[in-house]
Amino acid sequence: MNYFLSRARRHPSFIVGVFLCLCLGAAALVSFVWLSGVAFEVRMDQKLMLPSQQYWLGTDALGRDVALMLLAGSRSSIMVGIVAVGIGLGIGVLLGLWAAAAKGWTEEIIMRACDFSFAFPAILLAIMITAVWGPGMINAIIAIGIFNIPVFARITRASAQTIWSLDYVLAAGACGKGKFRITIDHVLPNIMAVLIVQATIQFALAILAEAALSYLGLGTQPPEPSWGRMLSDAQSLLFQAPRLAVFPGVAIALAVLGLNLMGDGLRDLLDPKMSRQR
Questions:
Q1: Helix (H) or strand (E) holding 57
Q2: CATH classification at residue 135
Q3: Were both Cys, which of 16, 68, 244, 278 would link to 234 (CB 3.0–4.6 Å)?
């Protein structure tokens, strides 16, 4: 652990990524414990006010504090990211491990099902789901989560196959150890680094997908703030108050940048080959 931390301190992009991710988490935490419903209050007599001491980032077309809306919107992004990535990890990793261990027709069926699911991107899947059950955050999470399943299944299967071909795993099988025990004791621990890195990348993609769905009106619904819907609301005022589009756009960009930098840093720090190079 101390060796990891000493190397992490010498990895500038990882430090920047962790800092941005901590800022995102802090914003969500502040919105939970401090804002309550104040971010949703409409004050038409104070609409489109410029940034001031009272309103740090000004107000929108309904007189709501843009800074408070950004803070409240961060929790929607984090919630969607955590649950959607959790769905992908929970189901996708199981399918990938099963495919790598079983091989044969089982592996072929699982992989072809993953290939088929890639024909339905998260946004298209969300449109299909909302056409049946209506728009909302839950349906957006389900759509993004389903899209994440084949991603994790494929990367888990590819990484697990590499471990299954190693001599000590073959020796464990020759000694009578079952496939389940080998998967739990040897395969899964050795692919955890890959899964952690992929989870950070999918988290960033989930934030982008949630913003896109909310922009289209399929994601988080009013009165719950969302960065994507803030962008959608700002497009009609793009020339009158461009800051209303700039602030949520910058928030999305920084959140995605932070997660990608942290993911790249984790890949470098957890990869043994990269460890020897540094």
A1: none
A2: 1.10.3720.10
A3: 244
Predicted structure pTM score: 0.86
The SS3 assignment for 94 reads: helix
Q: Is residue 149 domain-resident?
A: yes
Instruction: Name the 3-class secondary structure at 65.
Output: strand
**Cα separation of 63 and 69, whole Å?**
11
What is the domain count for the chain?
1
Q: How many CA atoms lie within 13 A of 20 on its CB side?
A: 22
Report yes or no on 182 lying in a domain.
yes
* Residue 58 counted as domain residue: no
Burial 76-97 (b: 16+ CB within 10 A, else e): bbbbbbebbbebbbebbbebbb
Name residue 59's beta-bridge partners: 65
pLDDT digits (tens, 9 = 90+) for 148-164: 999 999 999 999 998 88
Q: Report pLDDT digits (tens) over 85-95.
A: 999 999 999 99
Partnered with residue 191 across adjacent β-strands are none
Task: State how far Cα 14 lies from the chain centre.
Answer: 17
What residues make up the domain containing 212?
75-224+266-277
